[in-house]
Amino acid sequence: MSSPTVTVLRKRHPCCCWQAGLVLLLSQLLGCESAQRSAPTVKQRTTTTQDASTRELKNALELLQDPNLTGQSPTAGKIAYGLNAWISKQPPIPNWQTPELTKTLPTEVQRVFRQRTRSTSQDFNIEDVVFLRETLWLRDVSSWIVKQQLDPKFERWLGDVREKLGDTTTSKLGIAHRLFDWTVRNIQLDPISPDFRDFVPKTPADNSDQPARPQHYAPRFGIPGPGYRFSAEQLLLYGHGDFWQRSWLFMLLARQQGIQVAMLSAPGIASKKPLPWCTAVLLDERLFLFDTRLGLPIPEENRRGVVELTEVVRNPRILGTTELPGLLDLNPQKRYPVRHADAQKVTAFIDGSPHYLSRRMQQLQETLTGDQRIVLATSTTDLANRLTRHKAIDQVQIWPIAYDTILYRLGRAKTLSRDDRALRKNAYQAMGWPGDYDTLEKLLLRDYEFHDVVFQFSTSLASGRKQHLRGKFFKHEDEPGAANYYLQARVSDRDLNNFLKDPRFRARQFGFGQRAGKDKNRDQAGVELAHRGMQRAKQNATYWIGLANYDAGRFEVALDWLENRTLGAREESPWKVGARYNLGRTLEILGRVADARRVYFGDDSAQSHGNTLRARWLTMPSTENP
């Protein structure tokens, strides 16, 4: 299969020369598409002892820490080999069974579950290594977030309810709030995409001889949709997603801290499917509601803290009714999408991503202790039983977005590869999807360029992002921090202009020379692509420097980068939405509440409803002391 190719650029340093290479970042960062590629087989040897297999496991875990690990690198094969050497000496978990809930997954999704999970298998492959790297990132990110300062207002409310909730629940609720707040601030909210997963073309007229066109599952065909455009690792890398994706990431981060989160879904309007509503944190059999679309915990009636589902079901003043305004309504024309009646019988979606439901991951998790511990497995049965004890929970299902993400990645890769393009175009048109194949192709290419290519044209940006996610913001001893790498990724406007116009400058500074006999038009297209990639890398780096300073508690510095360098830049930043929200949060911390309110009221993004509520509540009196 051929793949789109781009040239990797790095700015020339005095002691090294940058070279061009052809590589697909989607494969590099997220693992190869030949997902079932096996690791080298571990043969039984009579001289192999339990100690030897333990050493193999230790070596594999050390290799997993490599920041440059990809599914394509030789290191991935070594890790899988070590894991197989270890598990071949372990007795399998007795009486292990595939979760019953997986049988309720859609047909297309069940196929993915069988192929990708290999739930009973004891053999690790390369895709398992990619999953382990992702969970390692999730663990590392969540580990430093939970040490961050808690929002003062929420902390005061926790102090007031500590006796009622108990120390353990209060502590974990504080952890959940930190993880939720980080997710909202760091994952810029995208509008929700149309959902074509159940799209059925119109049937022919009754008197027509033509048969009905078949239904097709959108993710498999590379059709973008809600919740599945990015994997969890991509969400962390790219820093934006819709509210389904925010919710999913919040679930996975909380899981690494031993906290279970479900996505509550209200009955759909004119739809057989329940519609995702808000996340529910399960603590001590209580369900606390956090809304990633609003970017806010759903508060109690006095606008403090976070409300429990039982109170929402009991009290119609929280969500409102047809006649009664709700706490989350802006006005009669802008009401919160879920009403009191909708919350009486809800569906709880829980994460059952493929690898978390496999026996080998369960076995590996039970072996890891102390600093090595990573949550690699989950029991959907136990969680479902706990959730169904709540009167308002009508049913529990596995949320299929992790599987849809896999299908979308494969379908997108086929479209980007342009292999069998004519065949795929004809099939697309025969399915009767809205839009045309050429438009879809352009959309996916633009998406690929915006997300994947930008990291190729700036290895400094990729290094900075990894340090950022590890909570390493500034240089420590000899190790550069995220901000140091981000600064390197900010190519000056003069250099960007010279790169585009001056072939000699491109060759001298970036090693980007035109080879003899190369088609000039094609070469110019590569130059323009590289130029766009460097521009976007600079925009990303500028915004992320602001976030890094915010997380480090340097709020005056964060203010400058968010307000002046991101929002005040000559060219409009793709991070305008996130920068405005984080600017408001920074102004709040600095005590400039009136300025913060102006920022929130001036927002017109997908999170505008929540931002308007936040602005109102900043000045409204409540039962708490100021």
Give a written overview of the molecule.
With about 625 residues, the chain is α/β, with parallel strands linked by helices. The protein contains 25 helices and eight strands. The strands form two sheets. Strands 6-5-4-3-7-8 form a six-stranded mixed sheet, with helices on both faces. The longest helix is centred in the C-terminal third of the chain and has 32 residues, at about 520-550. It starts with about 25 loop residues before the first helix and ends in a 9-residue tail after the last helix. The model is unreliable at about 1-40 and about 40-50 (pLDDT under 50).
Radius of gyration: 25 Å
Broad structural category: alpha/beta
Oligomer kind: single chain
Shape: globular
**Total helical elements:** 25
Strand content: 5-15%
Q: Strand order across the biggest sheet?
A: 6-5-4-3-7-8
Please tell me the overall pLDDT. Answer: 86
Number-wise, the strands total 8
- Percent range for helical residues? 40-55%
Largest sheet: 6 strands, mixed
**Kindly, what is the distance between the CA atoms of the first and last residues, rounded to a whole number of angstroms?**
63 Å
Unreliable spans are 1-38, 41-48
Strand and helix map with partners:
Blueprint: H1 25-30, H2 50-64, H3 74-87, H4 107-117, H5 126-145, H6 152-165, H7 167-186, E1 188-189, H8 232-238, E2 240-241, H9 243-256, E3 260-266, E4 275-283, E5 286-291, E6 296-297, H10 309-314, H11 316-319, E7 346-351, H12 359-367, H13 380-387, E8 393-399, H14 401-417, H15 421-431, H16 437-456, H17 459-469, H18 482-489, H19 493-501, H20 503-510, H21 520-551, H22 555-567, H23 576-589, H24 593-601, H25 608-617
Parallel strand pairs: 1-2, 7-8
Antiparallel strand pairs: 3-4, 3-7, 4-5, 5-6
Helix pairs in contact: 2-3, 3-5, 5-9, 6-7, 7-9, 16-21, 17-18, 17-21, 18-21, 19-20, 21-22, 22-23, 23-24, 24-25
